[in-house]
Specification:
Layout (H helix, E strand, L loop, with lengths): L12 H18 L4 H8 L7 H14 L3 H12 L11 H6 L5 H13 L14 H13 L8 H12 L3 H10 L5 H23 L2
Amino acid sequence: MTAQLAPEIKVTQEDRLRADMYNFLGLLLARAPDQILLDQCSALSGDDSEFGQAITTLARVAKVSRLKAVGCEFNSLFIGLGRGELLPYASFYITGFLNEKPLASLRSDMTIRGIRRSENVYEPEDNIASLMEMMGALIVGRLGKASSLNDQKSFYNKHIGPWAGHFFTDLEGAKNSVLYASVGLVGRMFMEIEREAFRMSAE
């Protein structure tokens, strides 16, 4: 007997755009933007939809933002003296503590999928930037074969859906958020779109 190979999953243009948005959010949340990323934010343009207007808001704020100020904003939000204003980790949002069961569950799923933490990354894997990057990679198969919609849904519902929307809402309203208030708006609305799309896929 010979094992049948699973059919290659075709990545649609819509899915590539979804992956691009996950990757974009991951870049913005992983570290303070450099000038290239800030310029990319400034060049964005959205349509007349609510989500498109959120993109336009981000672009408008980025255009008047200065690199040094954005760096200080990022540090205040996520690093701070001891800790930042926000703790962007699944374990913290779901259990109230760091390095708890959600992180262990994620690490198990990462092992199953052959995902390994980069050697130069020391943050726990359940931080929001890493999860955005992982989801983008799963959609287009950057870490192997593209994942099926059911597999994407499973990963989202288990590791992102339960808390990312709350995080982005907190980011939107954080005391130190200026540019990142609009990042929070875009992230929150994107999570709502993804949640609804996955919900409708089951109908």
